[in-house]
Amino acid sequence: MRKQLKLRSVALAAGVFLFSSSMLCLQAQEQEHIAIDAKAATTPFPHFWEQTFGSGRAILSLRESYRNDLRTVKQATNFQSVRFHGIFLDEVGLYDPDRQTKNPGLAAQAANDASIYNFSYIDQIYDGLLANGVKPFIELSFMPKKMASDPNALHAFWYHPNVSPPKDYATWDAMIHAFAEHLIKRYGVEEVATWKFEVWNEPNLDFWMGNPKQATYFELYDHTARTLKAVSPRLIVGGPSSAQAAWVAPFLAHVKEKNVPIDFVSTHVYANDTADNVFGTTEDIPRDKMVWRAVKNIHEEILNSAFPKLPLIFSEYGASYSNEPNVTDSTYMGPWMANNIRLCDGMTESMDYWTFSDVFEEQGVVRSPFYGGFGLLSADSIPKPSLNVFRTLHKLGDQRISVASESVLATTTANGGLTVALWDYAPPTGIGATYTMPTGPAGPAKTFDLELKNVPANASVQLWRVDDDHGNVLKAFDAMGRPSGDLTQEQVIKLRAAGEMAPAEHVRLKQGKLQVTVPAHGLALVVIER
């Protein structure tokens, strides 16, 4: 996650989006007729959007609140791995060259205590993930202060990680070797060979103070990748873990030239990144297209590189890199997420949403439940609409039917059922760092006339919804008067209940037809079992 000072052009974007939203409200909404044949040709549709989630830094995973949220999202999505910063931070306690022996009278104990590496918290962190059915996606960061070339190169995050290169690479290499060797010894190579190791985080921004940035990051990557492969060639390593979909082409050219191991490409993008920062152009790319444009561009860069078959992983992405409550805390996330899935399908192995929980401290200790945090659950484990969006989209099948619409995803399930996602995208309203209560709909509703073929003509249908009136905790929060301070236990209980997924509506097809009206910022899912 990038720091909050990078609010590049939010004020300008807010004006554009508010104007666009106003214009949408003045336009008549066209009714869409959608014909879907349940026996039409399909393409594989792996759930690439729910394989990995980001989270707050490593040490937070020892908290019960973190693990409770982890279990909730695991149940909702069955996600497979989690990525976080800071496994090498001093608070985790791995590296300390000045560590002293505590029991010199016992030779074996003395030898153990004299080690400069302490894996106690690392073991607790990874044990906790694995106990909940989640693997680590290991971001190798940040620099232990006693290993840093500049002890004062501290990032602006609340916990101030050191972001300088190591003062010597022999020390860094030894730590990486000991780290990988320990993981294999504790968990076995069969398990660790299924994890991914990613070198650093967003080195093209202020998370890396090497000079020059790119060349020194490439040096860090070379040392790290070669050391990991020396421990076991089965370990999976990749990078450059860059922000704004940057550096991929030169990175791949470098590893080819230097014959450095590479197993996957990783990079990041946010929907409110600017075209100037991502593409070096002056285009006005809307929030619902930016992520797709970046994914498409990097997908093509890989195809045109010396490694055309390398997997692409967007190991961090989201609708906003800044705290915008009316974006990440709101029902806007339904259409935004569904549309990204529609557009990015087939171009990336995994898109890793940032983050699963607001147990998160990059800007400090959370003060308000709805401040535009990145998580699917707010503080006190209150479900946001975005959690219900993921719950809804998890119900999609694993084979996709092509549909000529920008607001529809149609899939078939393993048991022969048909699932159809419908949404009504409108730009976000009330952009900014303060949550604002809606004064009206974000735009006109959209009506879908579905004509479904090769399904029982009068089949029973489950209709799941996430919109302003379904699975939307903000409606209850508004009714409370939007309390800005600490919530009472009674308020927390009420908000948790209000944030739960709305129960399915039960309707029937009429001669294979169904009409569904979806409000602006709404997502609906039609489920027809075999």
Automatic annotation (TrEMBL):
Signal peptide: 1-28
UniProt entry keywords in alphabetical sequence: Glycosidase, Hydrolase, Signal
A Gene Ontology BP annotation from the UniProt entry: carbohydrate metabolic process
Enzyme type, top EC level: hydrolase
Residues of the Glycosyl hydrolases family 39 N-terminal catalytic domain: 34-499
Keyword Secreted: no
EC code(s) of this entry: 3.2.1.37
Catalytic residues of the enzyme: E202
GO molecular function, one term: xylan 1,4-beta-xylosidase activity
Family membership: Belongs to the glycosyl hydrolase 39 family.
PANTHER family documented for this protein: ALPHA-L-IDURONIDASE, BETA-XYLOSIDASE-LIKE PROTEIN-RELATED
Name this polypeptide is given: Xylan 1,4-beta-xylosidase
Upper classification of the organism: Bacteria, Pseudomonadati, Acidobacteriota, Terriglobia, Terriglobales
